[in-house]
Design a protein that fits this description.
alpha+beta; 3 helices; SpoVT-AbrB_dom; Repressor-like_regulatory; SpoVT-AbrB domain-containing protein
């Protein structure tokens, strides 16, 4: 069982184990639903940053296709060297 202490200002620190389970970050909003069984804590879904959105994306296939498309184009025979 996880416990937290209520401060004189009515604040409670959510234990780190719960923050990790809910993937709570600073600034996230949570909601409290009180019913006859107790209190349910929920995380509001927030918009993900571009880094969070693509953090687990597999780019390996994309990289292979990019390599194919970025190969040098054969423009024909070299005419000569450019003198500088």
């Amino acid at each position: 069982m996880l416990e937290a202490k209520l401060t004189s200002k009515g604040q409670v620190t959510i234990p780190i184990e719960i923050r990790r389970m809910l993937n709570l970050k600073s600034g996230d909003q949570v909601s409290f639903n009180v019913n006859e069984h107790g209190i349910i804590l929920r995380k509001y879904n927030r918009s993900l940053s571009i880094q969070e959105r693509f953090a687990n994306y597999d780019f390996s296939n994309l990289n292979k296709e990019l390599e194919k498309s970025m190969k040098e184009i054969d423009t024909g025979y070299d005419v000569g060297e450019e003198a500088l």
